[in-house]
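Reagents: none. Just compute today. Ferric nitrobindin-like protein.
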Amino acid sequence: MSSDKANNLSPDQGANTPAESTNSGPRLDGNQAVNLAAEQSKSTADKNLPVFGDLPIPEDTANLRFGPNLHDGLLALLPLVGVWRGQGQAAHPGEEEFTFGQQLSIFHDGENRLGFESRTWKINPPAEEGAEADGDEASAEAAGEPEVGELLRREAGFWRIDNDDNIELLIAHSDGMIELMYGKPLTERAWQLESASTLATETGPSALGPGKRLYGLMPNNDLGWVDERLIDGEMVPWMSAQLKRVRG
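Predicted 3D structure written out:
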């Protein structure tokens, strides 16, 4: 049996928006932004998702230079397309805040939807210095370097948007939850969504309330995002990250 936690967030519940997280840093004028994007794309323009090559239908692509043309209905979401990678901070209920790594892939196949896949992993604090005192040169070299820890949650789903710019984000969480979020573009470079319904399995995160997410391109063209959750009646930051484009 599953537990249905359908929730609607009122505007006052989301009053503490995370918008500041994607608006930090020096402002760029239009020409500076274009020049920066062109410079950054030099290292990613020829990179894409792995392809099978013999698939009889259009391949998924996270690079707008390859594969089928992006559907006209997705133009308001175009800047999201790509593979993004970086680090973030998480503050789960009952746990100490920790650093995580993330790869976020947003791709299309020419149809009026974007595919969405997120993988996260824990990043452990750097090893203590002084390892060389034990005569372990490898440990000494690794001292001060963060270590990849346990694999964390995965998400998969789809972005959809209608002619009135109403966004639907459908997410399946690997820890046992299905979520539907609705939202709107805030600007051409920022998108905000709120949970309309969450459905947790018997073994899923029953304590995790409805959420609110903000995705946005920062002045340096990194993709930042913040997820707030309703915990004990209050919207609190739960996860956030800053990601660099690595493909697309």
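The first strand starts at residue 3 and ends at 5.
Action item: order primers for follow-up constructs.
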